C-alpha cells in the first residue's frame, strides 16, 4: 500500500470512524481502524461489532492494499499534523510509514486477517428523512432512554413507521418521549435503535433540509450520508406498547409559557436536589401554578400564571424530568394535561401532535416529611412504573 492524501480530510475521516471504537474492548483488534486503498479512494472503517462507521475520501493511490492501524493513536497523531499532504506506506513488516515534510513516523499494524467483517445490510428497503428532522427526533427523545440493563430493549429508541409517518418513542419506566415526523416511505415496520448508535448518527447530522436514506431490515439499520455510512445492529425484543400508556382524556389542562415554567422549575429544583430527591410539588388553582420545594436549607415557592380548564389539582413530580422535556423544545407555550395525583401527565404542543412527553408523578405523602440522608433516594420514586 502506498498513497498520499490531504491531511485535513484524513484527520477528519479518522476522527469520524474512531467514534465506533468502544472504550470497553475485549478483543484488541477492535481497537484498530481498517484502511483500504483501492482505485482513487481511501476507505476507513471501525466497528465494535454492534456499531460500524465507514468513511471514504479521495486519495492518490499508487499501490492498492489494506491495513489495520491502532485507532485512538493514529487519530490523535494525524490530528496534530498540519501538513497539506500526508503519505502512507505499508511495508513488508506490517508497519505503517507516515511521511510529512522531511519527517516520518512508523507504527506497527494489526493483522488485517483478524479484523472482523461487519455484516453488510443488503436490504433495498429504506425511508427518506431530512437531516434536520432526524436530528430533531434524536434530540427530543434520547434523554428518556433507560440507562440500566434490567430491560435492554429500553436502551434504544423505537422507530414505529407506518408508511409516511414516523413515531419515535423512548421511555425508561418513569417517563416517555414521543416525536412524530413525516417521512418518505412505503414501509410498515417497528425497530429499536440503540441509543449509542443514535448519538453517533446525531454527531454527523446537520440542521439542513437535505434528504438522506435510511436502509433497514429486521436486524440492521444503515444511514447513508454519501461519503459516510453508519451501520448498527438493532435491539431485539418487544418494546412497550406505548399507545396503551397514553390517555385520551384529561381532567385538568393548563397552557403555560414554556420559558417562565422552565425558569421556575430550575430555581425550585436547586433546593429539591438537596433534600427531596429532585421532587417538586405542583398546585394548580385559579389560573395559577404554584411550584414548591423544600429541604433543611429552606423552601422555594414559585407562582406561574396559566390558562386552566378543569379541576384544581395537587401533584408532585421529578423536576429534572420536566426540565429535560422543556429544554428539548422551542415552543413559546406548551399544554400540560393531568388527571389525578396518581396518574401520569403529558406535555404536548398547544396545536398539533409533533411531540408528547409523559411523566409519572411522585407520591405526595413522601414530600411532607424530610427524609433522612439514608432514605432520601426514596422520595424520588414515582408512584408506579411500567
Number of domains: 3
Q: Give the name of the CATH architecture of the largest domain.
A: Roll
Helix and strand composition category: alpha+beta
What fold name stands as the CATH topology of the largest domain? DNA Polymerase III, Chain A, domain 2
Q: CATH superfamily name of the largest domain?
A: DNA Polymerase III, subunit A, domain 2
Let me know the average pLDDT: 91
**Strand segment count:** 25
Q: DSSP helix count?
A: 7
Helical fraction equals 10-25%
What is the distance, rounded to the nearest whole angstrom, between the alpha carbons of the first and last residues?
A: 55 Å
Radius of gyration computed on alpha carbons = 25 Å
Largest beta-sheet characterization: 12 strands, antiparallel
* Proportion of residues in extended strands: 35-45%
**Inertia-based shape:** elongated
Which CATH top level class of the largest domain fits?
Alpha Beta
For the biggest β-sheet, the strand order reads 14-11-12-13-25-24-23-18-21-20-19-22
Question: Would you give an account of this structure?
Answer:
There is one protein chain. By secondary structure, the protein is an alpha+beta fold. It has 3 domains: 2-114, DNA Polymerase III, Chain A, domain 2; 126-242, DNA Polymerase III, subunit A, domain 2 (DNA Polymerase III, Chain A, domain 2), CATH 3.10.150; 246-380, Roll (DNA Polymerase III, Chain A, domain 2), CATH 3.10.150.10. The protein is built from 7 helices and 25 strands. It has helices at residues 7-18, 71-79, 131-141, 195-204, 242-245, 258-275, 319-327; strands at residues 2-6, 32-38, 41-47, 51-58, 60-63, 65-70, 85-90, 95-100, 103-108, 126-130, 156-162, 165-171, 175-182, 188-194, 211-216, 220-224, 228-233, 252-257, 279-284, 288-294, 299-310, 313-318, 333-338, 345-349, 355-359. The strands form 3 sheets. It has a 12-stranded antiparallel beta sheet. Helix 3 (131-141) packs across helix 4 and helix 6 (258-275) runs antiparallel to helix 7 (319-327). The chain is elongated, with a radius of gyration of 25 Å. It starts with a strand and ends in a 27-residue tail after the last strand. Mean pLDDT is 91; it is low at 365-383.
